[in-house]
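Example (one chain per record):
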Amino acid sequence: MRRSDSVFAVFSPEKALSFIQRLPKSALPEGLGDWIAQPKAYAEEIVRFCERSRDFSFPAELGLHRFASAPVDLRGVACPMGSVRARLVLSGVNSGEEILFLVDDGEPIENVPRALVETGNRIVFRRKKEKYWELCVWKG
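Predicted structure:
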């Protein structure tokens, strides 16, 4: 994934995955979920997208510069994909940073924190909102 900053013109794969998981669905290629789940089956399509990405720029309203403080919305993401997506986001975050996740009640608020703690992260807080939870995670 490329960006316009000439000093660091290419994101690491981990940072790119972290960004992709935070983007609104409207900004992503239609089959992204399938690509992640079955990369071999979609290899040619992925290569074409990557080749075209050289000229792709994210719309300013996506605010890539604000990702460090923007919550990651995992509401509506079924288990175990919520845990998988949370791990992908954290893979592109520096150790010691905190990320706020929004997760549904029920299985997600049980499974996502457990999966993140198992991989060396720490839960800073869980805060119940009206119909979801805020989960603040410190990257270990």
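Caption: Confidence is low (pLDDT under 50) at residues 5-9.
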